[in-house]
Amino acid sequence: MSKDKQDRQDVNDSAKSWFKSGSPWVWLTAAAVSASIIMVAGLIALIAVRGLGYFWPTPVLVANYHESDVRTVPIIGEIRDSEAVPLARLRANGETIKSDNEFITRHLLRVGNRDIQGMDFRWVLEPRLSQQHYPDDVMVIERREWGNFYGHLQAVKENGKIIEEGDKTWDVLQQRIARTQKIFGEIREIEKDDIGAINYRLEQLRLDERRMEIANDSNADNRASISSERTALQARYKVLQQNLAQLHININRDILVAKTGDGQVVDIPLAKVVRAYRPNAMNILNKSLFYLEKLWEFVSDEPREANTEGGILPAIFGTVMMVILMSIFVTPFGVIAAVYLREYAKQGPLTRTIRIAVNNLAGVPSIVYGVFGLGFFVYFLGGSLDQLFYPEALPAPTFGTPGILWSSLTLALLTLPVVIVATEEGLSRIPKSIREGSLALGATKAETLWRTVLPMASPAMMTGLILAVARAAGEVAPLMLVGVVKLAPSLPLDTNAPFLHLERKFMHLGFHIYDVGFQSPNVEAARPLVYATSLLLVLVIIALNLTAITVRNHLREKYRALES
Q: Which of 257, 286, 269, 283 is nearest to 170 (CA)?
């Protein structure tokens, strides 16, 4: 054999040996995992940039816009997006633009003043903008209604009289806004906490009376006690109403006078103003402080303006509480089912059939679980609970309506197969000798299971719980049927006994993303919030998973010596 043939033979043998060793598949798997990690990291980075960038104060452009050859209008707004459009397409749509460039830049401006102009965003073509500048005195006003206002501050009024319209107008405005915000907080505290607690207690007294009527209880002392408490609550309510009336008078006395880009002068009550700022006059420090303030508002405040402004605290709270309740429900049921199938059930055709059914349940569409939860948990189980324990509230349902309890149970049922399979896998990995050693020392089977087997299988249980949390936290379809709503005025947890109200509806980050992204009347304003909420949902899931992973790793290290 010639030397060349021998070399080729050696190369072929080396290649065959390399393939037989499995190294190509290891490298292929590593490449696939690396590509997946890069794509996930890129997606999270995109969401973070699009979402978190929304809270940074954007400079406000002031310019003249030539809508046609004979019509020019002043325009004020923030450039929210830009894109290059083929000139041929613009001309095909009737635009008469003279340019030697193949593409024309157009900007999406947030012009605000929706109550005056009728639109919040508009597209403008770069060649038709003239006299572009960014004056320091242009202001942005965030309002509780009608979105942002863009214009120039003219004066500040109190009870209809101008109190400042000179150089100090801006400082006076900030002082009045701070005062108004304080009064607004007092109003919200009285309405939600004090009056809310009174209304809740009055409803409980009404139900107590109704319960006595159903039971034919004519105890005069009980009725007198209810009547006395109701009278005291009503007297307290009248005092709070008087305080509210005075606060409303105080909050409505201040008004700012502003001028729009086209010269219209408008009065804006400070009661409807969240904040006013001049982004063009801000330095880096001021912008950073503003950014942190907006970011904190996003995670700690309630939504407003059809969920397109404000914060998402109720959605964060609802998501976390639902996942915690789901974990409390699914873990014991999943572990008990796995222990029975692995440790007690006779291994035969029936057990194998049950395992196949459990595995198949993991592939059932989530909306099917939602329909089952609505029919069984809400209508059947909830309706039965109302008949047995809350007849005084009927026909208004208490538990016979979608709520956070039924949502948690539905998602517990949805994720149950994951916990069962993971726990069974953990039980199967425990050496038989450990069980036999425990039994040989005189322990019963139950004691062996409780004191030895289950602790050693706890890392696998936590793995199942991690997978369950990861799936349940992002589910939306079943929740739309069994408890989630667009806006929940009351959180499931408050200061009114029994403090945790499992019958209440709640908000959820996943549904909030769907609602803001696809059901919002102001799509352009809602788009950045979709990214920001998506990022927050990912962070919540990561935080929940990291907590479970930390517990699992601790348990794994604790029982590693026993496994070896």
A: 257
Whether residue 269 has a cis bond before it, omega within 30° of 0:
no
DSSP 261: T
Give the β-pairing of 138-143 and 273-277.
Answer: antiparallel
pLDDT tens per residue across span 441-472: 888 888 888 888 888 888 888 888 888 888 88
Which one-letter amino acid corresponds to residue 319? T
CA 178 to chain centre: 29
**Rounded Cα gap, residues 406 and 403, in angstroms:** 6
**Distant-in-sequence, close-in-space partners of 323: CB < 8 Å, separation ≥ 6:** 469, 472, 473, 544
CA distances in angstroms from 127 to 93, 132, 133, 392, 485, listed in the order given:
16, 11, 15, 70, 46
Q: Which of 65-74, 225-234, 379-388 has the lowest mean pLDDT?
A: 65-74
Q: Is the pLDDT of residue 178 over 70?
A: yes
Please report, rounded to a whole number, the percentage of residues in the chain having pLDDT higher than 90.
Answer: 39
**Within a 13 Å sphere around the CA of 32, how many CA atoms are in the beta-carbon half?**
6
CB–CB of 120/111 below 8 Å?
Answer: yes
Does the structure show a pLDDT above 70 at 525? yes
